[in-house]
Design goal:
Elements: H1 7-13, E1 22-29, H2 32-41, E2 49-56, E3 74-83, H3 93-107, E4 112-115, E5 119-122, E6 125-134, E7 142-151, H4 156-159, H5 176-197, H6 203-208, E8 216-221, E9 224-234, E10 240-244, E11 247-251, E12 255-257
Parallel strand pairs: 1-2
Antiparallel strand pairs: 2-3, 3-7, 4-5, 5-6, 6-7, 8-9, 8-12, 9-10, 10-11
Helix pairs in contact: 1-5, 3-5
The chain binds biotin.
Length: about 260
């Protein structure tokens, strides 16, 4: 039996948090990221706010992609967090979020690993995606909307819409409120730590979770290959380090592929 998302249950399991987070759940929406960005633009809240949806019909992914999910078989939520940091200082936030998600899953016995910059993989297949979007900056703070989608089951109609190998976590489907509470605790801690220390504070933990460390990978911009080399982890700015034939390069953006790397 799949439990419905319930704000009260999630709040009860996150009550010990130093930073209070308001929690809302809705049966359906287009995109929890879009909803929180719109509300942030209207100054609808000024403290951390979590919005979780049973179902999204216009889920957004990175690089303009669509995030497909199915009611009850995915966990889809966004956390809006106001940071007292400048916009450029938030560049590495998605990596810190990836660490928080993967460590939470590891603590629940799931061997999740990270693909740069912030896909969460299980045995090489995508289990969860992270999309961080920034609301129009206020006077003294910048609000990041941290959107996370986790596959808990992959019914055939969902699998047929996803164009890449995907994984799911049926063992965690039964109590999505407990999973969401554990994630929220870890994310709130990560946001506080990120505000103090930036992405450098997460580099060693990210590297310990790196799925493709030591593997030959290609970094792509659409169909174009930008670099090829051995993935060596991230540096203190969150850049992917690649050992190429021409020496070490630090990559700022792109999609990483194992399949497209030439031997
Ligand atoms: O891997 C990606 O491309 C990122 C996917 C992020 C999906 C989540 S689901 C909750 C939140 N709302 C959205 O519209 N997108 C994010």
């Amino acid at each position: 039996m799949i439990s419905p998302l319930c704000a009260r249950q999630i709040a009860a399991q996150t009550a010990g948090q130093a930073r209070r987070v308001a929690i809302e759940t809705v049966p359906e929406t287009g995109s929890t990221n879009a909803d929180l960005l719109a509300r942030a633009a209207q100054r609808d809240f000024d403290a951390p706010l979590l919005l979780a949806a049973e179902s999204q019909h216009a889920g957004r992914g990175r690089a303009g992609r669509t995030w497909h999910s199915a009611p009850g078989s995915s966990l889809t939520f966004s956390l809006a967090w106001p940071f007292r940091r400048s916009l450029p200082q938030l560049v590495g936030l998605p990596l810190a979020v990836g660490v928080a998600v993967a460590e939470t899953l590891n603590a629940l016995g799931v061997a999740a690993r990270l693909k740069w910059p912030n896909d969460v993989l299980l045995e090489g297949e995508k289990l969860a995606g992270i999309l961080v979007e920034i609301a129009p900056p206020g006077e003294d703070r910048v609000t990041a909307v941290i959107g996370i989608g986790i596959n808990l089951a992959l019914p055939p109609e969902l699998r047929s819409r996803i164009d890449r190998p995907a994984a799911a976590l049926p063992s965690l489907q039964a109590d999505r409120n407990a999973l969401l509470a554990a994630l929220l605790n870890a994310l709130a801690e990560a946001c506080v730590e990120f505000e103090a220390g930036g992405v450098a504070a997460f580099a060693a933990r990210w590297n310990a979770l790196h799925a493709w460390r030591g593997e030959r990978v290609a970094v792509l911009d659409g169909a174009r290959t930008l670099h090829q080399g051995m993935a060596a982890g991230i540096d203190d700015s969150g850049r992917l380090l690649l050992d190429t034939d021409a020496g070490r390069v630090a990559v700022l953006s792109g999609d990483v592929s194992l399949r497209r790397a030439e031997a």
